[in-house]
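Raw record, unedited: Beta'-coat protein
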Amino acid sequence: METASERVDGLSFHTKKPWILSSLHSGEILLWDYRAKSLIRTFDEHYGPVRGLDFHKSKPWFVSGGDDKKIKVWNYETSWCFITLFGHLNNVRTVQFHHEYPWIVSASDDQTIRIWDWKSETCISVLKGHNHEVMCASFHLKDDLVLSASLDQTVRVWDIGALRKKIVSPADDLLVKYVLEGHDSGVNWASFHPTLPLIVSGADDRQVKLWRMNETKACEVVTLRGHMDNVSSVQFHAKRDIIVSVSEDKSIRVWHAGKRTEIQTFQLNHDRFRILAVHPGMNLLAAGHDSGMIVFKLERERPAFSLSGGDSLFYVKDSFLRHYQFSSQEDSQVIPIRGFGTASLNQSPRTLSYSPKEYAVLISSDLYGGFYELYIIPKDRIRKYFVRRKRDIGRSAVFIAKDKFAVLEKSTNRVLVKDIQDKLFKTITLPIRTDAIFYAGTGNLLCISEDTVFVFDLQNKAMLGELRTPFVRYVVWSNDMESVALLSKHAIIIASKQLVHQCTLEETISVKSGAWYDNSVFIYTTLNHIKYGFPNGDSGIIKTLDVPIYITKVAGNTIFCLDREGKNRVITIDATEYILKLSLLGENYDHVMSMIRNSELSGMAAIDYLKQNGLSEVALQFVEDERIRLSLALDITEDEELWEFGIIDIEGLSADEAERDFDDQELATQAAERDFDDALRRRSIQELATQAAERDFDDALRRRSMQELATQAAERDFDDQELATQAAERDSDDALRRRRDFDDALWRILRRSGLLREEE
């Protein structure tokens, strides 16, 4: 996988998922699926470059550190930063979770290493001693040690056992156990070996140094020279005895840790490498550079293998030719294979071809410009290690007859036909520039070029077929040699033996392997799925994979395969779907009915598949439900007379059958009459309901009129009450006037009569 982005300063592999984190100089953090080659999500809360990244081993978290002096802990499932740690006074260079305790170690340009407790969100220790920027710090996988590298030209190993025992307060300093001095410039990176007491470091002096520790001291073992500029990062490989380093000289270099020599160099044209990450459990590495990152493997994972007789598999693993028997599942070692890669970097062979008649094996490799080896294996078990072995130059080699094989001489574009004694029989020039050759039947070759494949008849020197394709990496023939699957990186092309194109199955991720089932279905694997494909283009998913596998044979619901480690595995799958489709395509309807009766699949699954593929007429052959039959017939035609489609076969009826059909028709007529009576009754009920609704409506109108009259009466009563009130008020005023008039008259009478004096 290769990505394009701004400069990548930090990388971290997830231990279980096919994910990798990359942090950019712009401050963004990107989560990638390296299998699907797709961006999952982006995290953006840091200000400035982010240089440190690490996934937690068991929780859905990762930690990051950047030039904003902050350390952040994220939940990648929710994209939430739920912890931010403050304390560093300058740029944070690296961060790492402890494998067991709730700790994070960080290195900073403030010349310190800090250990944090993410539970309490506090700094529990500050490691002081470097007098220049600290470029990286990491925990040991097993021991209570921390390793740091600094631009003060030293590598330091710190003992943190006291911290684990909780006898050190945050104010106390932890002790330096070793100080490794030897680099002539600032040290950019240092790493522990995953299992051995070794340390590797890389520095601005362009050197990679290997160090060994014991209980009392650490000393330099060797200096590896070859880089032409600053060494940015260096790591031990997780599985092999090798060291990998990246540099600002735009190269990745692979070193033999035991022999202490350079094995391989990979070069970029324009970009300087900044950071390196090694997957802890797989043969995967990632390197960040000025304009993105690359995820790559150092070794070929697909084992070279060849089937023989349907029950035997020959394959290469760990520099040995091995034999596996499918029926008994017995695996045995046959002979040692030499000359493929080194003891530490095993470049497995690309192809293997087997001749059962001569008990001979041809193994081809891409190393050293391409070569092949011929092994004649003694059938006498007592002398099985006395192997006849011949080696010669050739891009690929393959048996074309029981005692003849062909070798591609790529430089001249010729095929050399040789006998079993490796003697040249004849030479033939191919009509098209060819990169690889494969078996295509006795005396024939399937030749692969950059954008074309063709079948070539060696006897008549003639092309038997030609097909334009993407570059083909592997070829898989059906057992009857009538069909061929051509595997390119992201597609499978299925063709006839004359290379007449039948279909192309496109994939978005890498195609890994495949095998034919019953000469008609191609079962293949991608990075994360087992799938099937038919020559008509129909395809589907059988099973999801956690890790890639390489199919060697398919038998019913059993898949035999080799894994990444070259171990034989047996996987049980649900083959119902493609076996059903195969039976339908072969018009084996008895088998389909048997599958339905045995509850191997829903009957409707078969019917739906047939309908979707325009095979409703076929479905009528085994469907008994009359409603489904009518539906299928209507799919075929709108003609009311459906006799010809199998609903009722008039011509094939006996007298009794005709009588039964007549009775069925009478019953159908009676049923129709009952349906008509039911419809009349429903109509009467509907009319009565309508009349009731009309009466309800009239009643509602009457109630509405009565409510309006009552409202008007209430309004009149209210007016009468107001008038009565006014009249009462007038009567009260009149009564008051009359009382005053009476009182006045009384006073006048009393004064005239002398009963009251004037002063009273």
